[in-house]
Amino acid sequence: MKILIAEDDFVARGFLEKLLKSLGHECVLAEDGLKAWEVIQQGKVRMVITDWAMPEMNGLELCRKVREAKLSNYVYMILVTSKDRKEDAIQGFEAGIDDYIVKPFDPDELKARIRAGERIIELEDEYKRAQAQLLQSEKMASVGQLAAGVAHEINNPTGFVSSNLKTLSDYQHDISGLVKEYRKLIMELKDTIARENLPSSIAEQVEGIVSLETEIDIDFILNDITDLIGECKEGTERIKKIVIDLKDFAHPGEDKVQETDINKGIESTLNVVWNELKYKAKVTKEYGDLPIVRCYPQQINQVFMNLLVNAAQAMEDQGEIKISTKGYDGSVEVKISDTGTGIPEENIPKLFDPFFTTKDVGKGTGLGLNVAYNIIEKHKGTIDVESTVGKGTTFTIRIPAG
Description:
five-stranded parallel sheet
């Protein structure tokens, strides 16, 4: 942790720095309250150890500034002073300090107070993560309701189009049979006209029909009608499958622990996000034989969705997304790789932090990977990342089977 030491005495400042470094902390030094305030405003420190009496701005004024400011993270304040009256302590706490230690202090006591501060900061961070996850859950519930409603609305017209196509297919079969009989009759009449002297009006009608058949290419039309109806029926079946997958993926309130085929979950998710992928990447799949996993399938599919969409967005031009699955040491392993821009090494430790994003403003909330991490952790699994700038990224998920 990065800790700010605000102390005007050179010897005391050096002693505190040495003590904190022995505990593994990184130190930022300020020789007066004003410089300390400038450091705090930069958001680089989570804990401050400040002297009471300092030039420019004393420790109490610094505490008040911190508490009045709208900082992005909570800053834990420890006041160090030679003042040991109860009234002094009360004044310090009213100014906003979190802890108070009197000079000369025992180093072990200060270490204990720092550890207590770390626990408070960790609780604060846990609370923020929980709030972020709750926000995302609420958002996904709203999206789920909307998606389920849209899926229902699509399903209705798709149903009657599919039904009408079946009827049209039956009609086309009957009409084709009738047209074939008409054509046989025309050919017989044409032969008869050549042999016998039939009325010219009949001969003209027969020649007109034969000419029209040639002009419109009746053989092609009869064959193509069958193909077109077949393609339309295939299209409606595809729409129906997408709708079913969308409803299964997004419907709120129905996610519960189930025995799940992870390969089928990936296929279902691909169906839902295909529009995000098809123009950016070729998707290759290598599915292994997997044991059944007991999990929350909608949540696991949300992890796949977040990783697949991120993979597509990481590509500046056309690329490849590779999905592979296999059984691994009592777990199911899923690898999702892309040939995108890759992730700088310094960003990898922060990838799963809430609100961390390298996308342009308005193009990402920084919650997708954090939600994915929390879901996999909830399933007692792991999610790891390997990346090389300019070559691509691979996410590896392992979920216990059974």
